[in-house]
Amino acid sequence: MIRRPPRSTLSSSSAASDVYKRQEYGKPIRTTMRFWLLSALTAACTATLPPGDHTITIRAVNDTIIHIPPGATSQLPVLLALHGLGENYPDNFQHQVHLDAAADKHGFATVYPLGSISTFGSGVTGHTWDGGKCCFSRQDDLSFLRRVVNRTFELVDADRSRVYSVGFSAGGVMSHAVACQAADLFAAVVSVDGPIEVRGECEPGRPVPVLHFHGTLDPVFPFHGAIFNGATQTIASWRQTDKCVGAPTESNLHPLIEASISPNCSGGAEVQLVSIKGCLLYTSPSPRDS
User: Fold this and answer.
1) What is the per-residue pLDDT across 162-214, written as a single tens digit (0 to 9) for each?
2) Sign of torsion, CA 179 184 188 190?
3) Can you point out the beta strands (E) in the chain?
4) Which residue from 19, 38, 96, 217 has the least number of CB within 10 angstroms?
5) Residue 143 in contact with residue 159, Cβ under 8 Å?
6) Alpha-carbon gap, residue 187 to 18, rounded angstroms
């Protein structure tokens, strides 16, 4: 059994936490007069969160976890971690990917939001993200993530120039989407096995640094593409968007790990692909520990 540190619950206000913490993740918020009053009062007097895990309510009950590293001072970088399609509740994904250990070591805040309910229903395929032409949602997840970041700014002494997104599978698709559509907010993005699938053109308004990991045997998003794009199309798209020139630099990080870096891009951006040979890079989330 996973042992978790104490977690505060900030459902728009600590006074409302007793109401929300008894409910399940992802239930729609009831728009009562009490809720909106508490929200308004909280917005007027927010405080910097102490180290530890804090659950907040944005779009649905308890749908976002913010982890603050020990010894945090000020101007923390912020990393949003976006889960893949499935039963990836915030605490489930948080303890699957172990990003908090890196956050504690290097001094940044990690934020775990819950994606929108899949078109097949949360009981069937859980939650996902509308990253464009993928992945089984047409809800406005981009606006939701903007709200998550803005709420984080209210609660955390953050460096607003260092906000990043890392996503797995459908979450990786969403990371590419925020790079295309919210470059005013996100400095750079990372995707693990989630290709670019935005609707229309990717026009970020500035060059965006991109790091993309992909297993060569990924059955969900094949490396060279199939129904959806793969690593090949994703990197080609970003090289064009970031106006990269010249051939990428190839290097072997490990006998099975190859890196391809395009350093000569507009504005000093880099487009990087890390290929894991013979690897799926796809794992199912462990059952949620209740």
Assistant:
1) 999 999 999 999 999 999 999 999 999 999 999 999 999 999 999 999 999 99
2) negative
3) 7-10, 52-56, 64-68, 76-82, 109-113, 116-117, 127-128, 158-168, 188-192, 210-215, 249-254, 257-262, 271-276
4) 217
5) no
6) 36
